[in-house]
Amino acid sequence: MNDVHYSERHFTFIKQSLEDLNHVLYNYNTSILCIKGDAILTFNKLSSLFNITAVYSHQETGIYSTYERDIQVGKFLKDKGIRWNESISNGVIRGISNRKTWKDQWIEYMNDDLQHPVFNNSMVVHKDSVSQLSNHFNTFSLTYKECANIQKGGTTTGLKYFNSFLKDRITGYNKNYSKPLTSRLHSSRLSPYIAWGNLSMRMVVQTAASKKNSIKDLRNLNSFLSRLRWQAHFIQKFEMEFQMQWRSLHPAYRNLGKKTDERLVKAWKTGQTGYPLVDAAMRCLIDTGFINFRLRAMLTSFFVFHLWQPWQNASPHLAQHFLDFEPGIHFPQLQMQAGVTGINIIRIYNPIKNSLDHDPNATFIKKWVPELKNLPIGFIHEPWKMTSMDEAFYEFKLGESYPKPIVDDKLSRKRASDILYGIKNSIASNLDSQKIIKKHTNPNRKVWNGDEGLNTSS
Question: Taking the model in full, what pTM does it have?
């Protein structure tokens, strides 16, 4: 709870999810006991109150502190003679040294039957007993502050998003996925429900794949199914390289000599960089907890390339505001977009070109950077092109009404490109890259699109 990557919005989502579970459990006259405390002390107290024979949980690929916690819990349970049953939740496999057969194993896992356990009153602890048990612990309050602009947690809400996506919103998925505004409607918006365990990945994959005969444009569905596998792909990568939380994957990019500039960092964090799409993306993220993939990549790119700041300094701020913060996706994606993996294309997003290409009418920008909304569209995208006469006519003053660009777009892009491509082209870098490719790449890989259930690739 004290880690810099988590914030109140995450704990609110968790509380809402537990609240939703309690609504279901009400029919069985029971509820969940929510405890706040150290894991070892909590299990030790529970073991003094009950004769525990087994503990059940899902297998987590989290930040390093949760990894350390799990090692301690595992040792404690082993010493107590308690069996720990950890279920794989998303096809990510612990302990493998390379990913040669991982894709086939993932498909096999997703093909397994969904579990439908029988649940009845004889299997639960009566709510009065749960209430009495709570006297022994520091309980975790499920009260929270409502936020209308952020998705609400819970399986019930997650299923509503899933059903509306498959029924209607998947139409135009490919067309709108990269658009700042329309992506909010036409993407699935399932990521927080998958990240926090509200929805089973196997259920999502199997349900989506079963709709092949009812969805008109299969390209939309196939793209969605492909992204579900990529979700597990990145988590598997992080499972095998947990040092990615703080260290660049490729050794050649670990000493770029970047120095933190708090002025630049503050402008980026608050959406005051002087680049309209960058600022709109950041403000939208802070307010809603969601922006699409392209905007996430652009925010990272702008921070690490244009501002020339260490990617590690962007990590906490983005994680705190991503409602769907998933460590296994967050850190590999940060490094991929920062160009420090040695195996991915270095992508330096042009914030002006992306603005013109994906928000041509400046609809998204006008919503989130309202100080620009009364300007002509051309000036909204590039307000620094206004003359003093233009400023007088529109009652707008660059540097007062809206910030001047904090860096020169062309010069900063060239600096980053020259340095990073110089490293990429070095012989030593290429040798290290081959080692990384061998470990993380699937040989003879093909794009899986869910044909014939989950069993074939094309």
Answer: 0.92
In the structure, what pLDDT confidence band is assigned to residue 456 with cuts at 50, 70 and 90?
very low
CATH superfamily of 8-136: HUPs (3.40.50.620)
Cβ atoms of 236 and 92 closer than 8 Å:
yes
Every domain of the chain with CATH number 1.10.579.10 lies at 251-425
Element (H, E) at 325: none
Please state, in angstroms and rounded to a whole number, the distance separating the CA atoms of residues 446 and 383. Answer: 45
Q: Which range has highest mean pLDDT (251-255, 265-269, 444-448)?
A: 265-269
User: With 0-12 CB in 10 A as exposed, 13-18 as middle and 19+ as buried, what is 26?
Assistant: exposed
Which of 99-103, 190-194, 432-436 has the lowest average pLDDT? Answer: 432-436
Q: Does domain 155-238 have CATH number 1.25.40.80?
A: yes
State the span(s) of the chain assigned CATH 1.25.40.80: 155-238
Query: What average pLDDT does the segment 40-58 reach?
Result: 94
Task: Say whether 164 sits in a helix, a strand or coil.
Answer: helix
CB atoms within 10 A of CB 233: 22
DSSP state of 402: B
Task: Report whether 327 contacts 238 (CB < 8 A).
Answer: yes
Classify domain 251-425 by CATH number: 1.10.579.10
Structure tokens at 442: 């699937």
Q: What are phi and psi of 203, to 5 degrees?
A: -65, -45
pLDDT at 89: 84
In sequence order, what DSSP letters do the residues of 249-278 get, joined into one string? SSGGGS-------HHHHHHHHHT-SS-HHH
Point out the annotated binding site: 173, 187-191, 224
H-type alpha helices, 261-362: 262-270, 276-288, 293-301, 311-321, 327-338, 351-358
d(CA 200, CA 89): 7
Q: How far is CA 408 from the centre of its chain?
A: 30
- CA-nearest of 251, 258, 266 to 416 is 258
Q: Where in the chain is the domain with CATH 3.40.50.620?
A: 8-136
Binding residues for FAD: 173, 187-191, 224
